[in-house]
Amino acid sequence: MSNREQAKKGIMICGHGSRDKDAEREFGLVAKGLKERFPDLPVEYGFLEFSAPNIHMGLNSLVNQGVEEIYAVPGMLFAATHAKNDIPSVLTTYEEKHPGLHITYGRELGLQDDMIDAFQARIYESLGLDPENPPENLYDTMLVVVGRGTSDTSANAEAAKLTRIVNENMGFGWADTVYSGVTYPSVGVGLEKLMKLGFKRIVVAPYFLFTGRLIKRIQGYVDKVAQENPAIEFIQTPYLNDHPRVIDAFQNRVEEIMQGELQTGEETLMNSFKRRLAAGEVDVHHHHAEFVDPQDDTQGLSASDVKHFTNVVLSEGHGHSSVLNPNGHSHSHGHDHSHDHGHSHGHSHAHSHSHDHSHGHSHGVYKHIGHPMGPRTMIGEGICCCFMSQFTDEILEEEKSKIDGDCTKTAFAHQ
């Protein structure tokens, strides 16, 4: 028997993290459910940012329990920046610092049948229907799936693919996808456009694992639109949470690692990360590995969000101070590096700055940041400052009427 086969095994679930304490607790429920599936193995979890335990803490706990081989799975629905870059970076760095430890990184949850079944079950439940005995169709109802929204095109496409699959499975009269994040169409504008189709019953189903700022923002948008359109029945589907089929999906990803299925077929997330890192294609923000306690449960922006945005405005010379509140600080982070934000709207900002591992949030640059149905529709409603920093002067000038001088204020959805 090889040393690897004799090594004590453990499971690590790697999440994003949230300023919402309820989201932390819900993530813990998934870990608890997975522990019930693997009673003989230690199961720990940790977050990239905002929350405790962070990923290092979870890994430390496994090592302290004598674990020498870790099966790590991303607690992510789709493979965007966090699953592709940030988590592999944390795991690789940790493994390098612990000789004798072996970490295998699995796949994102993706569009497994279990995930689709869980999502459909939540939708049926919100309609007061039995998922085990569904109607033949729901032709009188429109489905609006809310995806996370990211700068990663493939992740956005997966949300749209999910919508089509669920629509055909359940037989809605129409279905479409809106997004709560950096892409388009945004939730509010998307709903306004879709209401023109004339459906009197609209199901809004967020494809999210847990609660958090975005879920509450989505609920706020839907409530606002529903109040303005009393003739339409809006039904809000609960997020996935620890539905048994979600636990099944996590179990599947762990068993893929155990059975060696990641070594065949397409490139794994970890292999992709290492290849791109070696080629200089990955700009890793190591602050994701560090835990910063926000000290509060408010749904507004964290101090690190404010710090990051104000500095971007001032140090990159965007000239936004005429329309945004200049709080003024230096972008000093502890280790110098340069990177080009590569804005596709006609100018780029090659700059050098340093990062203090207390920075709490980052997003990839999105080339359609100025889309008329995208994040600009959320300016003035508490949109993340990391998005705000990507807007050109021209966009901010056009949207100036929405900006009262402070992008850090809480969105109406959270008031």
Give a short synopsis of this structure.
Residues 317-364 are annotated as: Disordered. The chain is an alpha/beta fold and 415 residues long.
Can you describe what's shown?
By secondary structure, this protein is α/β, with parallel strands linked by helices. The protein folds into 3 domains: 3-108 and 265-278, Rossmann fold; 113-236, Rossmann fold; 300-414, no CATH class. Helix content is 36%, strand content 14%. The protein has 13 helices and 10 strands. The chain is globular. The chain starts with a helix and ends in a 17-residue tail after the last helix. Residues 286-363 and 406-415 have low confidence and may be disordered.
Number of strands: 10
- How are the strands of the biggest sheet laid out side by side? 2-1-3-4
CATH third-level topology of the largest domain: Rossmann fold
Question: Sheet bearing the most strands, described?
Answer: 4 strands, parallel
Which architecture of the largest domain does the CATH hierarchy give at level 2? 3-Layer(aba) Sandwich
Biased composition (Basic and acidic residues): 333-343
Organism: Marinomonas alcarazii
GO molecular function: lyase activity; metal ion binding
Keywords: Lyase, Metal-binding
Topology of helices and strands:
Elements: H1 3-6, E1 9-15, H2 21-37, E2 43-47, H3 55-64, E3 69-74, H4 81-96, E4 102-105, H5 113-126, E5 138-147, H6 153-170, E6 172-179, H7 187-194, E7 201-206, H8 213-228, E8 233-236, H9 244-258, H10 269-278, H11 303-315, E9 336-340, E10 350-354, H12 385-388, H13 393-398
Helix pairs in contact: 2-9, 4-10, 5-9, 7-8
